[in-house]
Design goal:
Number of strands: 8
Strand order of the largest sheet: 2-6-1-7-8
Order of helices and strands: EHEHHEEEHHHEHEHHEHH
Strand content: 15-25%
Number of domains: 1
Number of helices: 11
CATH topology: Rossmann fold
Shape: globular
Oligomer: single chain
Low-confidence stretches: 227-232, 234-250
Helix content: 40-55%
CATH superfamily: P-loop containing nucleotide triphosphate hydrolases
Mean pLDDT: 87
Distance between the termini: 28 Å
CATH class: Alpha Beta
Largest sheet: 5 strands, parallel
Length: 253
């Protein structure tokens, strides 16, 4: 296994945005573990399957080909050859992913797939149990968080910008709060901060600030020898270079 930076945290904390830019800056592979659960959820909903039936969910995982491709336009998610990147981000999928994430058989089936990415490349992985279950031996573990109201604002902007969906801030805040309750209370792999994970509140931080902070933490977590002896070889960035695609004023999320 190569270097793994694992990032956990609640919805809207900035995990996806930060992990994507961090991976690009380091030249690492980006893994959105939540996209896999969303894909299973999307297919289950498409088939009008019983989301509480373990046998059915297991069969869906076993018969579905899921691929994550890092492209110049960001991470693309494919289900049986179909690009479902936008579909799996819609509220109906988001509001039902909890059932899939609580399925022991689904989690067990997806675990080898998630870990296989680290066998191919150095990795930045984000989700809700990447530091506690998927990559317990990660090089660096991070727990991103932010004020619930700020997370709801970010989520609302994402829905409007990426999916062109209009929704009220009140409703989005309610959905974020409900998702927090589900994630924190589920019996299987609940969202929690790993003992070794570094806590970082992104409420008042920009993407660039968070990414630069994580790069500093990563450099500190590995010895200088690992770089000079055939290690990852971090890119040398010109002083003052900004995170690709992120303005200094853009908040994490």
């Amino acid at each position: 296994m190569g270097y793994v930076i694992a990032i956990d945290g609640p919805a809207g904390a900035g995990k996806s945005t930060v992990a994507r830019y961090l991976a690009k800056k380091l030249g690492f592979l980006y893994l959105d573990t939540g996209a896999l659960y969303r894909t299973v959820t999307y297919k289950a909903l498409k088939q009008k399957a019983d989301l509480t039936n373990e046998a059915i969910l297991k069969k869906i995982v076993e018969t579905t080909r899921m691929e994550l491709k890092n492209t110049r336009n960001g991470l693309r998610v494919f289900m049986d050859g179909e690009d479902v990147t936008k579909e799996i981000r819609k509220p109906k999928v988001s509001n039902n992913t909890f059932y899939i994430a609580c399925s022991p058989k689904v989690r067990e089936a997806l675990l080898p797939l998630q870990r296989s990415f680290a066998e191919k490349s150095n990795l930045v992985a984000e989700g809700r149990d990447t530091t506690t279950v998927v990559f317990p031996d990660a090089t660096l573990k991070i727990y991103l968080d932010a004020d619930p109201f700020v997370r709801a604002v970010r989520r609302k902007k994402d829905l409007e910008r990426k999916l062109h969906l209009k929704t009220s801030l009140e409703r989005t805040l309610q959905e974020v709060t409900e998702r927090d309750r589900y994630d924190l209370s589920r019996s299987i792999a609940p969202l929690r901060q790993a003992p070794e994970a570094i806590y970082l509140d992104t409420t008042n931080l920009t993407i660039s600030q968070v990414v630069d902070r994580l790069i500093s933490l990563f450099k500190a977590s590995v010895s200088h020898a690992s770089f000079s002896e055939g290690g990852v070889g971090l890119p040398v960035l010109p002083q003052g270079e900004k995170t690709p695609g992120a303005s200094p004023e853009q908040s994490a999320g």
